[in-house]
Here is the input.
Amino acid sequence: WMTGLTKDEGCLKSVWITANSSRYQEFTAGFDTIGPVTFYYDNSPFAEEITKKIRAKYLKENDEQTTQRGILDLYTDSYFAYPAVEAIELVLSYTKNPIYLYELAYRATNSFSQIFGDPEGNYGVCHADDLMHLFPIGFMDKPVSPEDLKMSETIVTLFTNFATSGNPNKPIGLPIKWEPVTSARNMEYLEIESQSTMKENLAARSRYWGTLPLWHSLRNSRFMDEL
Here is the structure.
């Protein structure tokens, strides 16, 4: 199995909020009401407690820059990163087959944030930005750089290697060796950057969501929210 994340997945949702001052003010001022709904715990008996903990973790009063970044991280962690970690741990408990994880940390010239709410701002490596390196994308107004083309070649090679052999390292070799996960504790992953490196503890920040009185009741629920 091969799966991964972009570094700033949450910009799919956060850009629309933080790129507009009135929406940003509405979100932060009304978070006690908005939070439980947008993060799907409004029916929890612990909703008030969860809201307080999320606010303390991600939203910093009187610090707009930090809070805007916090909103991005909040959506990244809750919508993408922590569910991914949970899924990986579940698969690890049922299979001995190799699992290859990645995090795309390379910020290309263009980004899906351009169509998610802000054509000019830099919101990191947004949700779906990995697709730009695999398929033609129509909205890319800025010229693709030589570095972008090189990154596309690298990602296409890794992915086609895996599709061909079940191993992203062959048949076509690359300078970096992508190691499979050894355990849920280590959670090794390939950080895909200009100089890609192997790292440990994928999406470490998102583990905070495992401490909230929420996920224990959702893990056994059989539902899917299609983004």
